[in-house]
Amino acid sequence: MSAEWVCVQRQQDECRRYLDQFKVLDHPLKQSTITVLESRGTRSGKVPVAANGISLGSSNTAAMSAATLSLDPLSIAFDGSDPLSQFAKQQVTSLGKDPLSRMAAEMEGALPVAKSTALGSRSSLSKSKEPTNLLELDLIEPWAARRGAILNKYTTSEKLSIVTSFLTGGETIKPQTTMSEKVKYRLEQLDDFDEGSVRQMLDLSQQEYVVKIEQLNHELVQAWNQDQRVKALKIAIQCSKLLSDTSVIQFYPSKFVLITDILDIFGRLVYDRLRTKADYVHPGTREMTSLPENFTPDMVPESAKETCQNWFYKIASIRELLPRLYVEIAILRCYSFLAQDEFGLALRRLTKMIRGIGDPLVAIYARCYLCRVGMSLTLDRTYISENLDDILMIYHTIFNGGIRSEIARHRITLNGYASLYLPALDWILQGVAILTTDNQLDDILQRCKEKKNPALLLQSMMQSFRSDFIASRATHFVQILSTISVEGLSRGQLFRLLGSILSHTPPPAEQRLSVLSSAMKAITSLGNVEEFMQCAEMWAQYTSQHFGLKEVDIFLGSVLQQMAPKRIYEQHYHELQVITDKIVSNAQDVHGILALDNFLPLLDLFQKESIKLEVCKNILTSYRNATACDNAIINDPVVTNALMYISRVLNDSVNALTGEDERRQISGLICHFIRKVDFGRDFEQQLAFYVEARSVLSNLDTALSTLIHSVNRLATSTRRIVKGQHTQKTAAFVKACAAYCFITIPSIIDVRTRMELYLQSGQVALLNVCLQHADSCFEAAINLIPEVPRTVENDGKVHSTEGFIKTFIVNLLSTLVIVPDNPTQGVLYLLRLLLEVVPKYPFEPTSDILSSIYLHVLDFLSVAAQEVYPYHIVNVISNDELYGSDPKFIAEVNELCCTVCDKLLQHLKVLLESNALRAQSQLALDLLLKIITGADLSVDKMFTLTVHLWNLAVKNRTVIEAKQLQTVIQYTEHLAQVTQLESQRQCLWMLLERMKSRK
């Protein structure tokens, strides 16, 4: 043994770590500022900010030679603003929209109808500009928002056909030099069209059909760009003629969308061409300028008007009604070049012309296109009402015998056929409802209700009219829907739509209960379980939002009554899941919902494990969201059992294949529930709940950790209530808590978590004077050190656990200071066990963690040898009182100090052999400080060792900072001044002289 360590008594003041202290003038977290001189590389465009926070004017910017910037790295990176504000600023600068709005704008911009047409899109107006058409009022959903839904809904697997003459090859372009040749060539083109040069493509799939339509779109634009106006017109005519084909009737709404996209492009091309030719001389100048946005017909030159009239003459010469209508509607905006009030006249004229179309489906979509274009041109709504009148006049023909035989030939149901009318009817009724009074809407409702089979009209009305109008007449609508004939649609579909509206816009308070009762009575009597569940899915939200627990329980009871017979619930898991989610997420009293008589029976209907898991997860998520921001607790046994049942389902779903994210999500939900359970002063019931939860949540380490923390907190609360003076009953209770923790911890898989929980549980047991339990916890924690892996993976990165080992041992040593020795185990048994176990951990060969741990052990032993320890626990007799500085105890401490010191000296030798000069010098200084602080320097070996350590550090002074050596000298001088032992003082002064002589 090369060291002969003898601990000395010292003042507690000497325990302060002088080497780690330094004086600061400001709080370290206070934001600092630096002065950055302006240079060519300095960011420009920013308003300088003075130190007092006042922004300086632009006139002072040039005069300022410096600007004050924050030292915060995020502020520097983002020019002084926080990252979120900077990102928001970038978005506002670029598009002025959030990411989803910007994405939607980009997608909408990619669509021909939204990007290329001026008819179906809204103009960007300044706030001061008065709206010139109905779409600019922002009271109607734009057509672009409906387009995708129509294309997705109305599909077909049948073969389609297309008639065209422009997809199998281009036309020969003949050069025309004179006007007569140009007129002759155009007449030849029209004659060729009349002679039947068109070709029919058959057996096209839906995808192929869409591709062909896109090719037609491309051909039209290409022909226009090549000055082939007649070809472009012919393409528009042939596309319009495709809308007369109803051979694949279920695809007709999607065909309408695709064809009108092309017609919109054609209309925009014609309008832009006419506007280009309509340059005029601005009054007071001689220069030709383009027409302004809000031009009037008197600004248009006669040549441009003549060209515009020629286009309408060409279209008027089309023999077939349908293409003549569609093409004229497409270029309807061009009437702005001819007359001021021409729009209204043309729209009413075209409305009457549509009466010549015999097929009601073709006719209603023609009216839809007319209204769609008209809404983008004028504020006049007369033609929309006329179109609705015409629709109501021929409404009965939709259900006549001829139509029924036609749809039978197409092998579709009457319900499927009636649904084809909805996109067009919805758009027209939405236009009718703009700026319309409630009395006028009541008249329309009355007219529709009087029709035979009015279900289609009523559904479209509920989708198109204002929701507040529907909600204020909810009772009336329930009565109508309960009594009318629903041929062509289902009554359940109508009630589902009404429930969706009332969920977002509730009826007046005095009507809500009667509406719910009448609606549920009608829904229950539908006689079709599938329709009932579809309706209940929507009315669940209305019920949970606007009614109490009694009505919700009745609603759930009606659902159970419909689902229970013949295990029919197995076919309606989705609807049941939606109902459960809506009931829980919208409930005002989530605890009351969980305690309802019919709630757990509803959960029992989910027999499929994957569905049941998802439902239970959604319930706990809704519960967490509802209780995250309040101090609400759970003490109702019924609610507790319900949440425990749900937690059991989630716990049982966790296995070896469960992903880490899924495990973390489930654990977070269950832990939130555990922390919410509070039975107040009934600690025994609280502990009983934790015992039950432990048996249920055996697969989740995080949940078990939360339970252990909760039990430790329970034991600490018990001690606080009795003010540290336990009675026989409370002493038995805290021992039960300690036993709970000791038994539960081994169930946790992660070794580091177990160590931390053992240490915490041991500290709580020590606080409650459960010494045997504390010793067991500390011993178990120490024995786990060799099991800690050298590295762990976190977020895809590998991290060493050496830092954790050091932090854990330092925390443990600070606790062991006041832990009394077990009489049956010997002096400092736990420390000896620690010194035996620590080297078994696989430290890195070049790591200084082990030597740092030994230095902390020397600190512990130095404190253990003192007559009075720096801190104690009430009613716990620590070793200072237990041994009373007995010489045998002090001898044991000194022996341990010598052993640890020898290990450090051996490590110094290893560092010397590996030529690690910096680490060797640093360890020498650290060991020197421990010796002069806690060892008796009057022992020759220790004094000599101290001198050698200083010489070793000074020898390698080039690898350490000179300031550090000076600080060690100052600390040694401080110890020489404050120590009360004369022999120690003399040795310190002698050592100080030698240190200064070798500095």
Automatic annotation (TrEMBL):
InterPro entries: VPS35L. Keywords: Endosome, Protein transport, Transport. It is found in: Endosome. One of its GO terms (cellular component) is endosome. Its main location: other. One of its GO terms (biological process) is endocytic recycling. Belongs to the VPS35L family. This is VPS35 endosomal protein-sorting factor-like. It comes from Anopheles coluzzii (African malaria mosquito). The lineage of its organism: Eukaryota, Metazoa, Ecdysozoa, Arthropoda, Hexapoda.
